# Entry
Amino acid sequence: MKPTMEKRIITDEAALAAVHAAVDKANADGWPKAVAVLDDGGNLKAFCRMQGSPLLAIEVARQKAYTALQGRLSSFRFYTFNRDQFSEDPALLNAALAIPGITLFPGGVPVRINGETVGAIGVSGGPLDHDHACAQAAAEAIGAEPEEDLPPFDNSRWRSFSKTGKTARES
# Structure
């Protein structure tokens, strides 16, 4: 029996680089966000709340990252993977939402390096499809492996409006 094991976690530098990448994308697209990066244990490693992002986005970003970390898949994929079961059994949906720290909103992605989940990124504050895109951009910027076989984001299920009354895709 080995009494210890080696474990990989996201580095400080990678966590900060992920935050910067998400903020850069949010700035370029004009949507202020909150960005949370968690280590493999669900502990906050790096964070930024951009000026103008809603206060609620702080906790929601952390929950999106936590959902991605615990499920080892994006919060968007967590929902789509279970959507049929949730539709057939509302009690299952309620049970999933009762798990502390879990959310079904898109915008959380796991950080997988060499097949190992070392952390997660959560982004909140704008249209859900844009939150998801910012989280993906952050993961890509630090060399995380992308999720495979992920269907394209369908914003018709998640209608988030801008000040103009249009979704991010319609703007």
